């Protein structure tokens, strides 16, 4: 089984490159996956020096059950972070979408080509669950993983992968989050996070918020239940981060 590469991060769901920029500034090499060709071109141009140096690889593809194919991708130009291979997901705000076609890739294919990362960040509207399913089936394990907590199955897949510690991060409150100094992952990089960032990861997340999956899943159920009853009280949306206790060290 391939060991994670300590200085490698996957940014699956590149969007406009805010997370990739943060990872690069922290000294990590990045493999970034994005379905929209315009976003790929923009980030490749902005970080041309990093691409040339081999520190950034931009993969123009949608993560899908089968690689090497072409699928429809639905672009939401009002909420450009809602683009998806699932039409219903892309139109959930009642917006019009534009249909384009994009190539596909799988997580095992990415691992084969680029290696297993220390941290795998996944934020791909409507397909986070598929990414976690592929992670379980593959057998190779990053030290740290995060995904949008959009279904219970995501938690189940992560636990079945052997991860035994997890925490929830409310993405709406990133404005109050600051990278620790001294850093606990890579180099220090000052950042003003927004709702379009995935934020801190790994050992830089609050130590006291790591818990077992039973506790974290219960918190997620509480949040979802309250959100359905009163969205003003359960504000924001959640990512789940997972690891093994040994990855947190002492």
TrEMBL record:
**Coiled-coil region(s) at which residues?**
none
Q: Which GO biological process entries does UniProt record here? A: methylation
Give the top-rank taxon of the lineage listed in the UniProt record for this protein: Bacteria
Q: A single Gene Ontology molecular function, please?
A: methyltransferase activity
Record keyword Transferase present: yes
Alphabetical list of NCBIfam families matching this protein: fkbM_fam (TIGR01444)
- What protein does this entry describe? FkbM family methyltransferase
Q: State the species of origin.
A: Paracraurococcus lichenis
Q: Which UniProt keywords apply?
A: Methyltransferase, Transferase
Domain Methyltransferase FkbM, residue spans:
11-163
List the InterPro entries: FkbM_mtfrase (IPR006342), SAM-dependent_MTases_sf (IPR029063)
